[in-house]
Design goal:
The protein is of the alpha/beta class and about 240 residues long. The chain has helices at about 5-20, 25-30, 45-50, 105-120, 140-150, 165-185, 190-205, 210-215, 220-225; strands at about 30-40, 55, 70-75, 80-90, 90-100, 130, 155.
């Protein structure tokens, strides 16, 4: 993260505290939206037993400015399951939609076809505020026009600050649950279609209470951003 990135993170946190009350994350934000990818493995149990590669660093070194490597790596390969997912406080997963290519045309269609239903499922007293990252293909002129027709208000998260978006924590927990299932059920063979069904089922069945706890950390993240002057968070 550059100095400009850090500055934008702090400005974002201060704007949130100045503009909204602390319950904005649970009562005003209808849903948290992002795309995620899962790699299909023909033998998920065997893959789950493979030791994960790790990059050893000093304590907290991974949180420092200039650090671009993650702390662990997982092998890729195989077909990729791509999902557009939305989570909402007290509602859990309200949308899990498969897609092939996340371009502006697809996302504009997604907004057109899904947003009214998603806001209804979230049921935040008519609030049409939502959060997603600042990816260009999700913020094109075409997408912005469609968002206006849906009266949707987007709360932008600064670029290169995924640790602010709590849905990333949800994705991490889902991937961990999938590995756990592969081991406990000893899934030694799984087609791509079976894998996709298991992932989507796991998403929708994920405990609402755990999703709530993730979202409830958002207010604390804002304080941590300001106190840490935009540096990476512990979350």
């Amino acid at each position: 993260m550059s100095d400009d990135d850090l500055k934008k993170c702090v400005e974002f946190a201060k704007h949130i505290q100045k503009t909204y009350s602390s319950d904005v994350w649970t009562e005003r934000v209808a849903f948290y939206l992002d795309g995620v990818s899962f790699y299909h493995k023909a033998n998920p149990a065997d893959q789950a037993r493979v030791p994960k590669g790790r990059v050893w660093r000093k304590t907290c070194e991974g949180l420092k400015q200039g650090c671009t490597a993650k702390g662990s790596k997982e092998g890729s390969g195989g077909r990729v399951l791509r999902l557009m997912v939305a989570i909402s406080y007290d509602k859990g997963v309200i949308e899990c939609h498969k897609y092939d290519d996340l371009n502006s045309s697809y996302f504009a269609s997604f907004v057109s076809d899904k947003f009214d239903d998603m806001f209804a499922k979230a049921d935040k007293n008519g609030s049409r505020l939502f959060i997603q990252d600042n990816a260009p293909n999700q913020n094109s002129a075409l997408v912005r026009r469609m968002l206006r027709t849906k009266r949707a208000k987007q709360l932008f998260i600064p670029s290169r600050s995924a640790d602010i978006n709590c849905i990333e924590n949800f994705f991490h927990l889902v991937k961990r649950e999938l590995r756990k299932q592969a081991l406990e059920l000893n899934i030694t063979h799984e087609t791509f279609e079976e894998f996709a069904t298991r992932v989507i089922r796991t998403m929708y069945n994920f405990p609402v209470e755990k999703i709530n706890k993730i979202i409830e950390t958002m207010d604390g993240r804002m304080y941590a951003i300001i106190e840490g002057k935009g540096q990476r968070l512990k979350y």
